Amino acid sequence: MNTENITPSDATNADPADTVSATTLANPPSQPDQDSNRRHFLRAGVLAAGSGLFATALVRQNASAAPPPPDFYPPPSPPAAPFAMPLPVYGAKATSRALSPSPTKIAQANEAGRLPHQRWEQFPSLKLVEIRIKQGSHSFHPQYPVQTIWGFDGICPGPTLVGRYGEPLLVRFYNDLPANLTGFGSPEISTHAHNLHDGSESDGFAGDYFSPTKFGPTLTRPGMFKDHLYPMIYAGYDQYPATKGDPREALGSCWYHDHRMDFTSGNVYRGMAGSFLLFDEIDSGNEKDRNSKALRLPSGIGTFDIPLIVADKRFDANGMLVFDQFNTDGYIGDKFCVNGKIQPYFKVQRRKYRFRILNGSTSRFFQFYLVLQNTDQTFTYIANDGNLLPAPLQMNQVRLAPAERADIVVDFAKYPLGSRLFLVDRIEQLDGRGPQDGLVSPGTQVLRFDVDTQPSMADTSEVPATLRALPPITMSEVAQNRIWTFDRTVSGWSINGQLWDVDRPDAIIKKGTAEVWTLRVSGNWWHPIHIHLEEFQILSRNGVAPPLHERGRKDVVAIGPGEEVKIFMRFRDYTGKYMMHCHNSIHEDHAMMMRWDVVA
Amino acid sequence: MNMRRTMLGGLGAAVLAPPLVMHATDPKAKPVLPGSPAIQSPSALSQTYFPNSIFTTHEGRKVRFYDDLIKDKIVIINMLLITCRDGICPLMTANLRAVQEALGSRVGKDIFMYSMTINPEYDTDFMLKSYAKGFGVGEGWSFLTGPKADTEVIRRKLGFYNLNPEVDKDPNQHTGMVRIGNDKLDRWCVMPGMLSAKQIAYAVRNLA
């Protein structure tokens, strides 16, 4: 490995597309002509859709795409007037002074039978958080009945977890869900902090699910709780000990959700998802920070720094949440929730806000616009998948596949008091396999911003021209190239023709190496592919450099029909079982997931 | 663009309505307090989901699909054809035989296994009996044949379908996975049929 030329303070980054020969791929692989009634689109249209940069509706080449057969979906949800509830916003989840019993390296009595915490001795001082997964009562909308959800601390979304680099965090997840709950999902849990850099035993491996009476195939016993150690180190800890990892690998807007194998889609749909925000001295969470390195982005969790978890849901005639346990293609809802409420409103001051938008849907894609009086507004795009870009971008739309994130800064000082702006989705999606290739207009208003008050204090927050440098792509570190093809098999979804097997690693990767993975989608559907442990950078999308906003670090990449994405990824600091899977969680539960192991 | 709106189908008028309706919320529809009896559990589609169409077992018994085969049971269901072209059916049957072995005496007690033919014209109960015998199938595992139309309904209800009608016509597209469910809990998932018998049996036990 040649890493001598890399230091964390190296702020210059080669354009990934220039660094490697990314233009050699002339044509994406040809596809079997399945679903041919939906394949009559321009290749250019597909590529543009994949790039996420097109701003105008493409001409639909096939306007007769059949809607799903009527028996696949229940009737539409009953009416729910939009903007009837305020957007729920949380402050940070409080830490606990102590946990009883105290956390231990090796799983203790009453704890699910996990492997020992890696690097335990290196983190003697831990911040402690306790979360109880339990039922709670929730109102999605005033016109629907209050109903039971499964949530972290019994709320939907779960509390906002906050981590700070250099301050290791241990979260104790209690599973208080009764074993005899009925309906979709399954009340055993394996919480994944997406996409934290952590040990496999804390990563929410799909086979590591537990309850007081049951345990997954990769645990050794059930438990009341399971401790997850989030070391709050940058990836590259072994490489750059002085800075506790490479600060260019800092994560920002993450989320945590259930990952119980075979039942992830139902469990997350039931409410088990929350935001997990990470800060360091650059992205310090303090817009008045005097540290010269601090960016002073709009700050204050729940005041000017607002996570927006957008997820579609469907309700029956009585207004109760419905799901289809027998659907294998992907499940789409017809009501759009933000932070657990259908189409809420949010009162804002005339100043800058940071919105951390997450697509928390099962299968639905979004393409969001910020609209004032039928006019699309420009906003500042600062982070893709929660990772700050080297420099902000001015954009007027953001496209998000399931699990993708975008941080945007909106300055409401541009708008007079009384203005109403809307976050609008313009994707057309008819079934769970992926979006149509065009856009709809005017689209669906998901969230309304009411420019409500004059700020009491001057807005000193900023979006500097330089945000966070990217770690270099060093091809000499690459120990292995692998190709992964995502396809449909008989009644399931496959990776390289294989279906999920919790016991079978499909890649054995040496710790401390880098690899280049080629991700291909075969067939006429979309797969947002998520890889655990570290972020990757896109070397090429369909043989060319990715669009600007994808030239950062990512942990989910949306790959469309016939597309091919080449990524560079490092595997550092930890060993054990990790996963790559489709984050259309119906596909994930129908076996589009593979285990890979990092070995010393 | 307007035609697109009509194609959104499930998106109700409320979603696309302008914000004028914001005051239309019924003030009486206030959320009830936690703990109130008005709190309900999410509804599940699988309740009253399966029909009671009549199938014949490989032992010649007439059975109602839901009431006799599913109700209050833990079930393992797959689709097969005796003439399975790509060979996955016999492999899966052999694998499920090992699953039956692994689950021991619970099969036939609270766990039941069903293999339904998607080719009922050919796969009669007589044919299925000899097929089952060839695999040494034990108590608690029934091979089912029934009218084609009823079979198609069950197949789709179980999720063994393809959205593309052309692909869906090929019966070989509907084998390979096993549907696992616990009717009492209304809890259902699928697993690849060729996973190790140990893993399938483990998942079934955890569904109880």
UniProtKB/TrEMBL annotation, chain B:
Superkingdom of this protein's organism: Bacteria
Positions that bind Cu cation: 84, 89
Signal peptide limits: 1-24
Gene Ontology MF annotations: metal ion binding
Entry keyword set: Copper, Disulfide bond, Metal-binding, Signal
Classification via Pfam families: SCO1-SenC
Record CDD domains: SCO
Disulfide feature: 84-89
Family: Belongs to the SCO1/2 family.
Protein name: SCO family protein
Biological source species: Massilia psychrophila
